[in-house]
């Protein structure tokens, strides 16, 4: 079993109320337990004194629910940051572009990044790809992220489950390793016992 020590950091990507508002407006998503799983990961990392980085998207697009002055910009309560936890603000898909995330990870000696958040096939995927390309041991927690149904290029509706699964397939083994909340929690327990 893998173990996560002090070299591991949790990165929560765009866990923001805009996505709750999108769902409330009728968009269907997958992984209904995802936010609860993010909260479980957050609690476990906090309890072990491990690093946590919150990433928030501040859209510059007119009308975006993720604009800083709108309610959708705020963090979802269960996975919100504490006063002593850094919040990195980005304006593009990758949490590494326009932020000091890479420098913070390097300075802290964090080699393993455990990634969760919203949405799987946008900012979570882009951040995960870049983490892998930068040489981090990226672990994407498949049941602690989600996406929405969307109309594909053919005009047909593609299910959130299919989009999520394809994104995981594209990333696993090439840019990251898939994890579940349970495998991460087990690895943390194993580390604490060692």
Automatic annotation (TrEMBL):
Pfam families from the UniProt entry: Isochorismatase (PF00857)
Keywords for this protein: Hydrolase
Family annotation (SUPFAM superfamilies): Isochorismatase-like hydrolases (SSF52499)
Entry keyword Heme: no
Its EC number(s): 3.-.-.-
Isochorismatase-like domain segment(s): 8-164
Gene Ontology molecular-function annotations: hydrolase activity
Protein name from the UniProt record: Cysteine hydrolase family protein
Organism: Neoaquamicrobium sediminum
């Amino acid at each position: 079993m893998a173990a996560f020590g002090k070299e591991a950091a949790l990165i929560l990507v765009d866990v923001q109320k805009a996505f709750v508002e999108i769902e409330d407006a009728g968009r269907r998503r997958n992984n209904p337990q995802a936010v609860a799983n993010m909260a479980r990961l957050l609690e476990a990392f906090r309890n072990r004194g491990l690093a946590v980085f919150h990433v928030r998207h501040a859209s510059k697009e007119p009308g975006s629910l993720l604009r800083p002055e709108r309610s959708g910009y705020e963090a979802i309560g269960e996975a919100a940051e504490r006063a002593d936890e850094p919040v990195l603000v980005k304006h593009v898909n990758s949490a590494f572009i326009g932020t000091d995330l890479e420098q913070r990870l390097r300075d802290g000696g964090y080699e393993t990044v455990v990634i969760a958040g919203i949405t799987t096939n946008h900012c979570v995927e882009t951040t995960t790809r870049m983490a892998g390309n930068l040489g981090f041991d990226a672990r994407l927690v498949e049941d602690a992220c989600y996406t929405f149904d969307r109309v594909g290029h053919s005009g047909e509706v593609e299910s959130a489950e299919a989009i999520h699964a394809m994104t995981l397939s594209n990333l696993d083994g090439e840019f990251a390793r898939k994890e579940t909340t349970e495998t991460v929690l087990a690895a943390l327990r194993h580390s604490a016992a060692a």
